[in-house]
Amino acid sequence: MTQTRAARLMDGTALARRIVEDTARRAAELTERTGTAPCLATVLVGEDPASVTYVRMKQNRCRKAGITSRHVALPATTTTDELVATLRELSADPGVHGILLQHPVGDHIDERAAFEAIAPEKDVDGVTFASFATMSFGLPGFVSCTPGGIVRLLDEYGVDPAGKRAVVVGRSAILGKPVGMLLLARDATVTYCHSRTRDLSAAVREADIVVAAVGRPRLIRGQDVKPGAVVIDAGYNPGNVGDVDFDSAVERASLITPVPGGVGPMTIATLLEQTVTAAGRQLGA
Ligand SMILES: NC(=O)C1=CN([C@@H]2O[C@H](COP(=O)(O)OP(=O)(O)OC[C@H]3O[C@@H](n4cnc5c(N)ncnc54)[C@H](OP(=O)(O)O)[C@@H]3O)[C@@H](O)[C@H]2O)C=CC1
Ligand SMILES: Nc1nc(=O)c2c([nH]1)NC[C@@H]1CN(c3ccc(C(=O)N[C@@H](CCC(=O)O)C(=O)O)cc3)C=[N+]21
């Protein structure tokens, strides 16, 4: 008789709450000491409804943590040069301590050029080349928020990536690529899969740790999850659906992140935490 045992859930909501509480204390202390509250600038190009919602969520969470936010809404017709100029102004503005450029920005814009216009000391979303380099070498610096939140969850649940086979599905600049580099820095054996990967199922079946970061609802199925694997679902598709087929994967995994309540809240917690750290450094406190 085979007995199936469902995986334990990795509770991102609970861990994120503790991080945000701690961050709010640090923000209050900094404000008290310097007379200035930490400030995050959010920049959004266009009016994509999902992006509008995410940015609003980030602003609300900032307010609750005692971080002020300044929002810059730009029309969908904004050019790369205009966006770069806006980000340079915010980079030079002493009243702004952290900058978040909401991704994606639209195909007519050179997103990399825009990211590189963010001053590294204000790159609290961890999207610049400078941040990618420090992340990859395991050096201090700002991490990409979703990858940083994922590694924090692994730590919390006692998962040490060292020596484990990690398979990252997706290689975007803000998610897939940096999460693989963070896992490599923690001594995992990392494989990246992407749209040109020939046999995705075969690769995923080898994984001790799977990170799904694709944007395709329920692409990763339980039958491809190695029994006992740790499954991280970073996907966030319309209708609150992840990139992992939760119902089948939960029967094979040892640990799994739910959607919602897994990776999402950790992303925002990491953003707030890094904003307060950036403000502390810039205010010389
Ligand atoms: N919870 C959170 O905080 C966050 C969640 N997300 C979510 O994560 C998901 C991914 O986001 P993001 O990285 O920005 O997305 P992108 O669209 O930028 O990247 C998707 C990646 O998936 C790869 N891919 C596409 N189709 C397949 C396929 N069939 N098989 C294997 N790989 C494939 C692409 O490959 P290629 O490079 O070859 O094109 C690409 O590398 C989305 O659901 C998004 O909403 C994103 C950011 C934060
Ligand atoms: N430069 C950039 N940085 C990002 O970090 C970034 C981005 N661009 N573009 C879009 C994605 C998406 N994203 C999410 C953040 C939090 C939740 C989140 O907190 N979700 C909750 C549910 C919230 C709800 O729907 O009520 C959860 O999963 O439990 C989801 C998605 C960050 N992104």
From TrEMBL:
Reply yes or no: does the keyword Transmembrane helix apply.
Answer: no
Q: Which domain of life is it from?
A: Bacteria
Query: What EC number(s) would the UniProt record show?
Result: 1.5.1.5, 3.5.4.9
Keyword set, alphabetical order: Amino-acid biosynthesis, Histidine biosynthesis, Hydrolase, Methionine biosynthesis, Multifunctional enzyme, NADP, One-carbon metabolism, Oxidoreductase, Purine biosynthesis
* Domain (Tetrahydrofolate dehydrogenase/cyclohydrolase catalytic): residue spans on this chain: 10-125
The positions annotated for binding NADP(+) are: G170, R171, S172
Under the heading PANTHER family, the entry gives: C-1-TETRAHYDROFOLATE SYNTHASE, CYTOPLASMIC, C-1-TETRAHYDROFOLATE SYNTHASE, CYTOPLASMIC-RELATED
Its job: Catalyzes the oxidation of 5,10-methylenetetrahydrofolate to 5,10-methenyltetrahydrofolate and then the hydrolysis of 5,10-methenyltetrahydrofolate to 10-formyltetrahydrofolate.
Protein name as annotated: Bifunctional protein FolD
Question: What organism does the UniProt record list as the source?
Answer: Streptomyces rubradiris (Streptomyces achromogenes subsp. rubradiris)
